[in-house]
Write a structure and sequence with these properties.
3 domains; L-fuculose-1-phosphate Aldolase; single chain
């Protein structure tokens, strides 16, 4: 067994293995776990275990200076609800480290392709990715021959279709937009009609996987390719930059159908627009950034690599302990409905779209339905309301009491311990020394995925989320899943991270509950004129929503804000580049007042208009 497997096995059994400040190996184990055989193995492999732990705890991977002593592994486990020893990958937030873990391939250009600007950019992009540490795999090595058999219904004819399938270990396939000829369009029409007939007669309601659907239609589609694992391999398409789409005067509501249709027609997760002077990047967030062409290094490092490393994926319900609650008995559920209604005039929360209204072809709808875990719609933004944190026993204890606590499987014994009753405490570093703070139970109510945030139905649209040593998802009582599509928000990790960060570092912000709003735009720097209002996150890599890396950045944003300005925070703006802004406040009326002022005074707007001004504010310190 390799060292990593050995450490994982020990962790599962409650054995804590770590290095102290002097680099010495430390071990703490529950009684009876460390057998004589295991002790002998640890002694024999001490040197390689030390080397593994020192490398694992290097600053670029797990622990960054000034993070109050918390490693990224601990933060990731906490906000992800990985508290019971489940398989877990520590979050990576450094683009240089992300790049080293990525493999991409470039699909060969069509034989008749003549767009010299895209061809030149494609070569530059390949060179920049390689220089950043990304492994660029040649097409022949990144694909393998694939063949499959389909039976055409009614005719009962079997046909074998051959293709090149992109291997599952490839993180992204980079292609150019392909424009089908008249013959190509006819082939697409035939393939779609065959698929619809196949679905209706042969499948009879059964669903194919994404790979099978893609195989069925890929012979006719120039903009689609056979992927062994569509959830791991993203398709990135290079095309001419759409000047009208990036026009700052174009309203966000008009951007939605343009952006969605661009992604659908190219059948890609990311579209990169290229012109002589500028680059744009578009994904389903539709809050794309625009870069000067000469800033390609920044474009690759801060925007493209993070998007490849952490694709947009919703959380499956299997990650939650699912139950029900009565929204009529929750003051916070009523408050979130009020919050959404009050935000309607601002226009910050557009209604989004129904997938069936935008994606016309059944094969495409079925693929999106599979990848989106059954979600029937996509919306932009969220409203949520964190309840006051729930503590049991002392909020903080002395170092003498801390020394009596027990290890917790999966966590560093230096960072997190628990009482005999199972309450967990963190060791946090302050300017005055260490403090030992209980991790409270976090509960919040939020709008469900795909709902109309400005007209929420209390009985169907407000879900309750919990973060204890696991994630909880509570549906409204008597919800009929066949009638109402009730799913957790893509931004759930962000919500729980903001609530936990506030509870640990800025308790006044959340002690009476904390309203939260996310919109796909940014405030101007001039908006932050009131006292005790702060902004963070502008320089973060642009990881998409739906990832716990985005949660880590928001948790760290609250923490760094407190380190810099103190814990007396009235309003916090946590910026997510290429995604939008999360704004939280100590009071709902205050939050609404400030947002309405920002919109009325043209200092808050959807889209990327004000993002550059925030960047200048961040650079000024």
């Amino acid at each position: 067994m390799n060292v990593s497997g050995l450490i994982d096995q020990l962790t599962q059994q409650g054995v804590q293995v770590w290095t102290d400040d002097d680099g010495k190996l430390k071990i703490q184990s529950p009684k009876g776990v460390l057998t004589s055989e295991l002790q002998s193995e640890l002694v024999a492999r001490k040197a390689e275990i030390l080397e593994f732990l020192l490398q694992k705890n290097s600053p670029t991977e797990t622990c960054l200076p000034g993070h109050q002593g918390l490693s990224l592994q601990t933060i990731g486990r906490l906000i992800g609800g990985y508290g019971r020893g489940e398989t877990f990958n520590s979050p990576i937030i450094n683009p240089s480290v992300m790049a080293q873990k990525l493999k991409v391939t470039f699909r060969p250009l069509p034989s008749n392709y003549t767009n010299d600007r895209i061809i030149h950019f494609r070569k530059d992009l390949e060179a920049k990715l390689t220089a950043s540490g990304v492994t660029v795999v040649p097409w022949e090595q990144a694909t393998q021959d694939s063949e499959y058999e389909i039976t055409l219904p009614t005719l009962n004819l079997k046909r074998t279709i051959k293709s090149k399938a992109v291997k599952s270990n490839i993180n992204a396939m980079i292609d150019v937009e392909r424009h089908p000829s008249g013959l190509g369009k006819a082939k697409v029409c035939i393939a779609e009609n065959l698929y619809q007939l196949y679905s209706r007669v042969w499948l009879r309601g059964r669903k194919l996987s994404v790979s099978k659907i893609a195989q069925f239609i890929s012979w006719a589609e120039e903009n689609i390719h056979d992927l062994q694992d569509p959830t791991n391999t993203q398709v990135i398409v290079l095309t001419d930059l759409d000047e009208s789409f990036i026009d700052p005067e174009l309203s966000y509501q008009k951007k939605i159908p343009i952006g969605v249709n661009t992604l659908v027609k190219t059948f890609s997760e990311i579209v990169v627009g290229v012109s002589e002077s500028r680059l744009s990047i578009l994904n389903m967030n539709l809050s794309d950034s625009v870069f000067p062409a000469e800033a390609i290094d920044n474009f690759v490092t801060k925007s493209l690599i993070p998007k490849i490393y952490v694709p947009i994926l919703p959380l499956p319900l299997s990650r939650f302990e699912v139950s029900e609650y009565d929204p009529a008995q929750s003051d916070y559920a009523a408050s979130i409905v009020k919050l959404g209604n009050a935000l309607a005039p601002t226009g910050l929360l557009p209604a989004g779209f129904k997938i069936n209204d935008v994606v016309k072809r059944q094969s495409h709808r079925d693929i999106i339905d599979w990848m989106a875990k059954g979600r029937t719609g996509v919306s932009f933004g969220f409203v949520a309301y964190a309840e006051p944190p729930q503590y049991v026993g002392e909020r903080e204890v002395s170092d003498q009491v801390w020394a009596t606590f027990n290890p917790v499987s999966g966590f560093s014994f230096d960072e997190l311990r628990q009482t005999a009753q199972g309450r967990r405490y963190l060791r946090l570093q302050t300017t005055d020394g260490w403090r030992y703070h209980q991790i409270p139970d976090i509960w919040l109510v939020s709008s469900r995925s795909g709902s109309n945030k400005t007209n929420l139905d209390l009985t169907t649209d407000v879900v309750r989320i919990g973060l204890t040593d696991r994630l909880h998802f509570q549906l409204p009582q008597n919800t009929n899943p066949s009638v109402t599509d009730v799913k957790p928000s893509y931004d759930l990790y962000v919500m729980v991270s903001l609530a936990l960060g506030a509870a640990l570092f800025a308790p006044r912000l959340i002690e009476s509950g904390m309203p939260m709003v996310h919109f796909h735009g940014y405030p101007a720097k001039e908006w932050f004129a009131a006292s005790h209002e702060y902004c963070a996150g502008v320089e973060n890599p642009s990881v998409p929503c739906g990832t716990y890396e985005s949660g880590v950045f928001n948790f760290l944003g609250i923490q760094r804000m407190v380190e810099r300005h103190g814990s007396d925070i009235a309003l916090a703006s946590l910026v997510e580049p290429d995604h939008g802004t999360n704004i939280v406040a100590y009071d709902m009326d205050y939050l609404l007042q400030r947002l309405n002022q920002g919109v009325e005074q043209d200092m808050i707007e959807l889209g990327g208009k004000y993002f550059p001004s925030l960047r200048t504010m961040a650079m000024a310190g």
